[in-house]
Specification:
The protein is of the alpha+beta class. It has a single domain, classed as Beta-grasp domain (Ubiquitin-like (UB roll)). Helix content is about 20%, strand content about 30%. It has a 5-stranded mixed β-sheet, with helices on one face. A two-stranded antiparallel ribbon has the order 3-4. The longest helix has 11 residues, at about 30-40.
C-alpha cells in the first residue's frame, strides 16, 4: 500500500494530468522527494529553503501539517495527503 497524494489543478501539468498520485516515505519531506523523482519540479513548487512555501497548504488525513511537524510530519502507508494552494482575493 502507498500514500495517496491529491494534486490541485494548478500542479497537474507536473503529474501528466493526474488528480492523485501515489508515493512512499517515512516523512512528508521524504514523500515529496519520492514524488519529485517521478514528477520532476513538483517538490520545488511545494518547498523552499525554509520549509513549505507560504502559499501552499498541505493536509495529512485532513490535518494541517503546519500544526503537526511540517515537513518532518510522519506519514505511513494508507495515509492521504492533500495539497491545496492558498486562495487570495477580495
Amino acid at each position: 500500500m502507498a500514500i495517496e497524494v491529491r494534486i490541485p489543478t494548478i500542479l497537474r501539468n507536473l503529474t501528466g494530468g493526474a488528480k492523485a498520485v501515489e508515493g512512499k516515505g517515512g516523512t512528508l519531506d521524504e514523500l515529496f522527494a519520492d514524488l519529485d523523482g517521478r514528477h520532476p519540479g513538483l517538490r520545488d513548487r511545494l518547498v523552499d529553503g525554509k520549509g513549505l512555501r507560504k502559499f501552499v497548504n498541505v493536509y495529512l488525513n485532513d490535518e494541517d501539517v503546519r500544526f503537526l511537524a511540517g515537513l518532518e510530519t510522519e506519514v505511513a502507508d494508507g495515509d492521504n495527503v492533500t495539497i491545496l494552494p492558498a486562495v487570495a482575493g477580495g
